Amino acid sequence: MEFIFSSLKHLVVETLIPISPTFQTLQYYLVKHPRVHNFEWHQGQTFGSSITFLTLTILLYLTLAFLLSRRHTTTSPSTTATVPPLLLRLLTAAHNAFLLSLSAAMAAGCGLSILTVLPDVDHLICFPPNTRPKGPLFFWTNVYYLSKIYEYVDTLLIALSSSASRRLSFLHVYHHASVVFMCYVSLHTAQSMYPAVVVANSAVHVIMYLYYLMCSLGKRPTWKKVVTDTQIVQFYSGYGIMALIFYRHFTGPGCSGVLGWCFDAVFISSLLYLFLDFHAKTYGAGMAAKKVNGDGVDDFAANKPLKQA
């Protein structure tokens, strides 16, 4: 890992940035801009950082998801279609395009921050105890946390669809509600290795939202299974990351945010189980690519994955 980190740092920070105006501009706006460089996350002061905000946000989401799900099950498809199909398609396309762009920005911003700010891979794997969530790394993890709240719009778009195949699944609602809490804990505890998780997950979401965008525009990519498989690989890699952090924590002076990783272990395990179940039901009997919704977004979109955060 040290060789890969050092090679990337040398390539980007020491070679490309000094000679490329484009990379210099990117570094300024993504890493060295005052709002990024001087960012500090304070519980109860930074927007969205209070326990009250977190609790009310998740409870409101769960309540609305329940009400929207009940609306689907107690009314006919013709009466649930509150938005014209063409408008819904355009709204869905705009939503997916925005999250595609945001995911790319988070992957680039947090990745460039890691290479610029951290001296070596050891500082990425294990933040010193009592690390405070401030600076470019935590600016982007905060953006990531807020983006997960915005992703609640996924649920609204599914609920607005009149397609009988696009019901709100337990996987979808559980994932969207839990990941916001996980991101909050990771920020609050200045969780070790978490910026790398943000880079990896955001990169995966670039692929995922590109797939959803193409579906919402009426195109049906043949690589649907790749999206699911990439998510599952990401969950498995989370166990390797946790093992590495716990090893460094208990054999050294300690790492910041280990309690957050304990929660992540439970969350990732539960989400992995749900994804494997979804994978088996979708692809195990040769059903892949046959279930496509009337609005151009297939049934996988109704079980939108994440993250790991």
Can you put this structure into words, describing what you see?
This is Very-long-chain 3-oxoacyl-CoA synthase. It is a multi-pass membrane protein. InterPro entries: ELO_CS, ELO_fam. With 309 residues, the protein is mainly alpha-helical. Helices cover 71% and strands 0% of the residues. The protein is built from 13 helices and no strands. 39% of the residues are buried. Residues 287-309 have low confidence and may be disordered.
Provide tags for this entry.
309 residues; single chain; transmembrane; mainly alpha; 13 helices; ELO_fam; disordered C terminus
The main pleated sheet reads as: none
End-to-end distance? 21 Å
State the secondary-structure class: mainly alpha
| Order of SSEs | HHHHHHHHHHHHH
Overall mean pLDDT stands at: 84
DSSP helix fraction = over 70%
Share in β-strands? under 5%
Low-confidence segments, given as residue ranges, are 287-309
Shape: globular
Q: Please give the domain count.
A: 1
